Amino acid sequence: MSEKHELAGRPRRPSPMGGRRPTREDLLRFAVDDPDAIDDILPRSDDQLHMLIVGINPGLWTAAVNAPFARPGNRFWPSLYRAGLTDHVVDAAAGLSSQDENQLLSRGIGLTNLVGRATVRADELTRAELRAGGSRLTQRVTSLRPHVVAIAGITAFRAAFAQPKARLGEQDTSVIPGWPANVRLWVVPQPSGLNAHETIDSLAERWKEVWNVVERLAG
Question: pLDDT averaged over consecutive 10-residue blocks of the chain (219 residues)?
């Protein structure tokens, strides 16, 4: 079995909520130090991974239903649809369907996080957690070899990779120790509703920019 397969191969677990949305009381159960609060979406074979989308860390709602960017109001899924990366607006609020997971994988799109611990807000993470997450992501990217990595959140990226002056857009990977030379790296805005600087349309434009590069490299 290849190292890539071992990294990508664990099947995703069903939603702990059993198909329902979590209540406020439910969410409190997920505010723990579990380093694997949510499963990745990655191919379970040697299929090519074209783009790896990297969130900062799961929110409590996301951990409760084991689905990325699941909290209602998060603009991630609407912006992906508007950018043409999905054929409908995914509703992950009660969990991610196998059909939606397969749609992403069929297009060579995977999802993971810099840090696996769930929190109410990303700014609850320590700098040490983010730096460790950056190192771990570099190692995984070296094995998974996507064409492009897109990290959603500039503030966390700066801390994770010791790049305090980094800006949104494509990054110079030569300044990131160990980053594989043939994997391009973008930082896109955090899609949470707390980010007042962005709209669904502006986020979609960022995703279109990245996806255009992915299509050229994959074609």
Answer: 47 91 95 92 87 97 97 96 97 96 96 96 93 97 96 97 97 97 96 86 98 93
Q: Where are the beta strands (DSSP E) in the chain?
A: 51-55, 109-113, 148-152, 169-170, 184-188
Q: What are phi and psi of 109, to 5 degrees?
A: -105, 125
Best CA proximity match to 60, nearest among 14, 114, 24 = 24
Contact (CB, 8 A) for 114 and 130: yes
Q: Which residues contact 104 (CB under 8 A, 6 or more apart)?
A: 41, 86, 110, 111
Give the separation between CA 203 and CA 127, rounded to whole angstroms: 26
What pLDDT does residue 93 have? 97
Given this model, what pLDDT does residue 8 score?
A: 53
What is the per-residue pLDDT for 10? Answer: 64
CB atoms < 10 A from the CB of 46, how many? 10
How far apart are alpha carbons 144 and 48 in whole angstroms? 9
Q: How far apart are CA 65 and CA 80, in angstroms?
A: 20
User: What six digits make up the tokens of 199?
Assistant: 């709209």
Q: Are 156 and 113 within 8 A, CB to CB?
A: no
The pLDDT score that the predictor gives to residue 121 is 87
CA distances from 108 to 3, 49, 52, 180, 198 (A): 18, 5, 8, 19, 26
Best CA proximity match to 137, nearest among 102, 146, 67: 146
